[in-house]
Amino acid sequence: MIKPRLAEIVGTIPTIKEIVSHPFPADNPSIPKGANTWNLPYLPDAIDGRTMIARRFKDDIVGNHFHPCIPGKNPERFLLIMGSVVFWFDDLFGDHLEISLDADRLGPLEVHVPPYVLHGLEVVSSVAWFIEQQIGKFDPLICFSREEFVLLKDSLKE
Fold first, then answer.
1. With 0-12 CB in 10 A as exposed, 13-18 as middle and 19+ as buried, what is 131?
2. What is the pLDDT of residue 57?
3. Nearest CA to 112 among 93, 87, 94?
4. What does the angle CA 39 – CA 75 – CA 41 come to, to the nearest 5 degrees?
5. What is the mean pLDDT, run by run of 10 residues, along the chain of 158 residues?
6. CB-neighbour burial class of residue 64 (10 A; exposed 0-12, middle 13-18, buried 19+)
7. In a 3-state reduction of DSSP, which class is residue 71?
8. Using CA atoms, how far apart are residues 77 and 113, in angstroms rounded to an integer?
9. pLDDT computed for residue 21 by the predictor
10. DSSP characters over 106-140
11. Would you say 23 and 29 are in contact if contact means Cβ atoms under 8 Å apart?
């Protein structure tokens, strides 16, 4: 049997009156995607970054973009917490991959997406919850569309 340890008290002892609990505001409640997305900033003393928590519904398409090689973004880390999705990937060499992920059956699943890979997913369960964490400030300009992917891919053929 392990002998119980006595924790050292440092500073003032907090009380339960100091516990804080509150809902996080949605990014933009006026549109469906924004009403079901929450971007949580890191703690003020931490490095810049964000944690995105998203809830998506059956047949929602997410992504369909790629990111260049940007420090703090790559690889993109995607964590499926609940639900089932079909992920698809296209690389600049013409290869295509689809994978089915089922967090309800297997538990949380993480996907790392390297730079310059077009990626997206479709929700196949009634609802899916996922988390994405990113070092550095959120910058919507680092997302490039499918059309921009094709443009980049075609430029490599020249």
1. middle
2. 97
3. 87
4. 20
5. 62 66 75 80 62 93 86 76 93 89 88 87 97 73 83 83
6. middle
7. coil
8. 7
9. 58
10. H--EEEEE-TT-EEEEEE-SSEEEEEEEEES---G
11. no
The pLDDT, as a whole number, for residue 48 is: 66
The pLDDT of residue 142 is 77
Cβ atoms < 10 Å from Cβ of 141: 6
The total number of residues written for the chain in this structure: 158
Report the predicted TM-score, pTM, of the whole model to 2 decimal places: 0.73
Q: Please name the amino acid found at residue 7.
A: A
CATH T-level assignment (fold) for domain 29-157: Jelly Rolls (2.60.120)
Our CA dihedral for 41, 47, 52, 53, rounded to 10 degrees, sits at -70
Whether 86 and 98 have beta carbons less than 8 Å apart is answered as yes
Give first-to-last CA distance, the chain, whole Å.
71
